[in-house]
Amino acid sequence: MKKMMKLLVVLIGVGILYAASMLFLIVQGTKEAPADNPDTLLILGAQVRGTSEGNAYPSSVLKERLNEAIHFIEENPQATIIVCGGQGKDEPDSEANVMANYLIQHHVDPTKILKEDLSTSTKENISNAMEKTNLGKTVIVTSDFHIYRSKLLARRLGLNDISGLPAQSNTSVTANMYSREILALGFAMIFSW
């Protein structure tokens, strides 16, 4: 029985150490500053809501990303914008289509927007965007908790001139998203090569 307790204590300790390490890296990503004069602004998708293609709209997490991007686009009109995200089985339209529509409704030049609408993961977002065009100096726009993993995956895919623009997460979803990201980051570090 004592051996089982010791093993349990060790496992709990390892779990706490793992979670603290991942959380440290995630928080470091939230402090990221975007590069000046980027060639490309890569906006990563998130959940889309609605009941049909005609009334699809961005979730609160996606809207935070898009609003952050809009401010940056105003200061960097030279950047090509790539909106990334396919259509999940529970989504009425692709994330890329909804994102492009939102940006256009907020006076972003539609000729500057490219859509990557086939991806189902962060790694696919980046990989598929790289196939669309030469990204050059790239700023990834995503949620603050998602910056570190996104940049890690981009570097592993060969995109080295990269920085992040973190969209601050709404406090009502922060704990849930950070908890999920702790697991996703560990998975990416081990399996996403």
Automatic annotation (TrEMBL):
GO biological process, one term: Gram-negative-bacterium-type cell wall biogenesis
GO cellular component terms attached to this protein's record: plasma membrane
DUF218 domain: residues covered: 39-183
Matches recorded under Pfam families: DUF218
Top-level taxon of origin: Bacteria
InterPro entries to which the protein is assigned, alphabetical: Cell_Envelope_Assoc, DUF218, Rossmann-like_a/b/a_fold
Protein name: DUF218 domain-containing protein
